[in-house]
Amino acid sequence: METFISVVIIIIAFIIAVACFGGLFFAWLWTMGPILNKDKYTWKQKHILAKFSMKLVNLFYRVKIVVHGRENIPTDLDYVVVGNHQSMYDIIVTIDSFKGPIAFIAKDELDIPFLRAWMPTMGCIYIKRDNLKQSLDLMRTVGVNNVKSGLPMAVFPEGTRNYGKTMHPFKPGSFSLATQAEAAILPITIYNTYEVMQNWPLKRTVVHYFIHEPILPEAYSKMKLRDLAEEVQAIIQHQLDQPLPNTKK
Q1: 161 - beta bridge partners?
Q2: What Gene Ontology cellular-component terms does the record carry (predicted)?
C-alpha cells in the first residue's frame, strides 16, 4: 500500500512540475514575440532568441534533432529553403537546425498560438487561401526583398501537411520566390515531426533533418516552374524512401 501511495505522489508531483514549467515556458514564448517585433533588433538578434526558445520547445516536447548535411548550407549565396511538410513542428525544427536567421512562408490559419506571436518577429509572410493574388504579391515583393537582403525564406510547396513518406504534389508557384530572387534552392527532407505530439510526453521523438546540396540559379534558369517543382520533389522523395541512419535514442 505504501508503495502504491508513493507512486501516486511521484506521478502527481511530475504532473504539477510539467504544468508549472509549461505554463511559465509558454508565457515566455507569447510575451517575447511581440516584444522583439521591433525594428531596433537585427535579424541575427531575433534569430538567436528564437533559436534558444525553440530549443526549449524541443526540450519540453522531448525532441532530438539529428541534422545531416549542414555543410550544404550556402555561406555566400542567397537561398530559399524548400522541404516536405509533415507537421507544424517543421517550423520549430528548421529554426533549430539552421545557425543563421531564417523566415517562413506560412498559412494565415497557422493554429499554434505561440508560433503566431513569433512569426512576425522572424520576418515571415502569411499566405491567405481566400486571397491568393495578394499572397503571391507579398511573396514576390516582401519575400524576394528578404532573400536578396540576406534573409533566407523557407517554403513548404505541398501547401498542406502530410503524415508520412508520401508527399502531396508540389505547387509550382511556390518556386517563384526563388526564381524571382535569382536565389539558390536548398532542398530539405524532414522525418518524423508528425510523431512529436503522438509520442509526447511518454516517448522521445528523434527527428532526422536532411539538408541537400543547393540547386544554383544557372542550373534551373531555363526550366519551367512545374519541371523545377518536380525535380526538387524527386530529390526530397528519394531521401524519404531511404532507410534512416542508425541513431541511438
Answers
A1: none
A2: membrane
